[in-house]
Each structure stands twice: as structure tokens, then as C-alpha cells.
Specification:
Blueprint lengths: L2 H15 L6 H33 L3 H25 L4 H18 L1 H16 L7 E4 L2 E8 L3 E6 L4 E5 H6 L2 E3 L5 E10 L5 H13 L11 E7 L4 E10 L2 H21 L33 H19 L8
Antiparallel strand pairs: 1-2, 1-5, 2-3, 3-4, 6-8, 7-8
Length: 321
């Protein structure tokens, strides 16, 4: 291909996107459209951000949704401005769409976390400051950005969990309600008066101020264990984690004091150690033939057993080839 043909091909390709008959009025119109769309995008972003802050909270979701709306308004103005300049937007959109697909495939993880952050902020299974159980960890939500959720764990560490993993995992919000219920298991010995044990446990619960009286606590008898009879204390407390730990500690102390005062034994697993000496065992004679005869069984099985025995003793004849 010579130089003239190459120039002609380039001119033809450029004509697909641009119309060369552009006047100064078209430039002024395009500049007005772009400036107006930019101003409108800024105003809509600020107004929408305030509205969403009152609706879903002043978090990342309100910011990103306001920005997306402003970007959409500016892009619409940009396309109108390009059209006023005679630029054919259709082929340009096709090229941009193919490039966007390639970028989306390359940044699949980033896009997934970004979309998950918007879903989390819109659905709001938790907010900043909530105590949650998330991805096998317990802590307080500190921040949610476009990629991760920041969790302040109970041991003082900061854990960043990808938003895609947060959105697909089980979320337990411990502080969504002002109060919640916990369980304390107690085992007593088998010679215990169970009604007296229940009364002692209820009296112990009443001496713990951190345990709420409403809803009322319950003491259930759960069943027979390997070395104890189980009792389960269901008690209510403030939903935050420090209140739960403090209430549980006080309740354990009160239960131990109450059962000790009433001479009720808190059972624990026990093991009997046997040395194997000084005991002849359950048998007082040497091993012998074991024949547990049963007349009914022997009488019913005798004919069939004889047939089987005779068939086993009968020589096997081979078929002639």
C-alpha cells in the first residue's frame, strides 16, 4: 500500500467518528453543554449526598451513589457535546464498550468488592460501631470503604475483610437490638434435689445487677450427662460485648456461691483407675467350650443344617466337555 492509499484509509477511518464540517458555533454549543452538565453534576452530587445521608446514613454508600449520579449526568452532557461537534458517538461507544469489558475482566476482584460495598451500605446489615461476628471473628465495625470492611477485633487487632467475602458470609449483628440473651451451663451431681438447685440458681441470678430482670431469666433442666445432670441458665443483658462478659463473670461467681451455700455439688468428669491386681475377675474357672444351647433354635435348624452338611460332603461332578 503506497502513501496515498494510507492517507486515504486514515481519512476514511476518521470520517467514521468525526464530521469535518465543524463551525465556531458548534464549539461554543459544545462548550456550553459540557459546562452546564458539569455544573449540574456538582449540584446533583451535593444534594443527593445530603438526602442519602439522612436516608441510609453518612457512610460510603451515600458518597459513592452521589458520585455515580454526577458521573452519569456528566457523561450524558459529554455525549451531547460530542454530537454537537459532529462526532459520531455510536462507533465510539462500541470501542469504549470493548475496552471496558477488557478492563472489567482484568479488575474482576476489584469490581466485585466495589459492588459488594454498595450492596452492604444499601442493605445495611451493620453500621459503623456495631459489634458483629463476621467471618469467624468478633469485633466492632470501624470503617467500610470501596474494597474492604475494617473490623476492630477483641484482641486489639485490626482486620480488613474483603467486601465480597463479607457479603457472601453469615453476619451476626450482636448490637442491633439493645439487649440479647446468653446461656450459662451448669452440671450438678446425680444425688441433687433438682428443684432446690433451680431455686438456688434463680436466687443467684437475682443477686447480679448486670442480669436484666425483664425479660425474666430461666433455668432449664437439659438432661442426663455422663457424670452430671445438666442445667441451663438463660439470662438477658445489654447487647454490647463488655456488658456480656461482665454479666457472665458476675453470674458464675454468684452461682458458685449459691450452690456452695446449699451444699449442692457442681459435678465434674470423674475417672476410676483400676490397677488390675487383687481381683480374679468375673470367671472362676478356666476357659471352656462355649455352647449356649436353645432347644427351640436347635430343633428348627437341625433339618436344614443336615441338608447343608450332606451337600457339602457330596462329591462335585464336573460336566463333560
Amino acid at each position: 500500500m503506497n502513501v496515498a492509499q494510507r492517507l486515504l484509509a486514515a481519512q476514511t477511518n476518521s470520517d467514521v467518528f468525526v464530521d469535518n464540517s465543524i463551525t465556531s458555533g458548534d464549539w461554543v454549543e459544545a462548550a456550553g453543554i459540557l459546562g452546564g452538565s458539569l455544573l449540574l453534576a456538582i449540584v446533583v452530587s451535593r444534594v443527593l449526598r445530603r438526602v442519602l445521608a439522612h436516608g441510609i446514613g453518612p457512610g460510603f454508600a451515600s458518597i459513592i451513589m452521589a458520585r455515580l449520579a454526577s458521573y452519569a449526568i456528566f457523561l450524558v452532557g459529554l455525549f451531547y457535546g460530542l454530537t454537537s461537534l459532529g462526532i459520531r458517538v455510536g462507533p465510539l461507544l462500541g470501542a469504549l464498550g470493548l475496552g471496558g469489558l477488557v478492563v472489567a475482566l482484568a479488575l474482576q476482584g476489584v469490581v466485585e468488592n466495589f459492588v459488594s460495598s454498595i450492596i452492604l451500605q444499601a442493605r445495611r446489615p451493620f453500621t459503623i460501631g456495631d459489634s458483629v461476628e463476621l467471618d469467624g471473628r468478633t469485633g466492632v465495625i470501624v470503617d467500610i470503604d470501596s474494597r474492604t470492611t475494617l473490623l476492630y477485633a477483641l484482641d486489639g487487632t485490626q482486620v480488613r475483610i474483603p467486601n465480597a467475602k463479607v457479603a457472601s458470609s453469615t453476619i451476626v449483628n450482636l448490637t442491633r437490638e439493645p439487649v440479647r440473651r446468653s446461656t450459662l451451663e451448669v452440671g450438678v451431681s446425680y444425688d441433687t434435689d433438682l428443684q432446690a438447685a433451680q431455686e438456688a440458681l434463680l436466687a443467684a441470678i437475682g443477686r447480679v445487677p448486670r442480669v436484666l430482670s425483664e425479660p425474666p431469666p430461666i433455668v432449664n433442666i437439659t438432661g442426663f450427662g455422663a457424670s452430671s445432670i445438666g442445667l441451663s441458665i438463660l439470662f438477658w443483658h445489654d447487647s454490647d460485648i463488655p456488658s456480656e462478659l461482665a454479666a457472665r463473670t458476675d453470674l458464675v461467681i454468684a452461682v458458685h456461691q449459691a450452690l456452695s451455700a446449699d451444699d449442692i455439688t457442681i459435678a465434674f468428669p470423674q475417672v476410676v483407675v483400676w490397677s488390675g491386681q487383687g481381683d480374679t475377675g468375673p470367671y472362676d474357672r478356666p476357659p471352656h467350650i462355649v455352647d449356649s444351647s436353645d432347644p427351640d433354635v436347635d430343633a428348627s435348624e437341625a433339618p436344614s443344617r443336615n441338608r447343608i452338611t450332606s451337600s457339602l460332603r457330596r462329591p462335585i461332578r464336573r460336566k463333560a466337555d
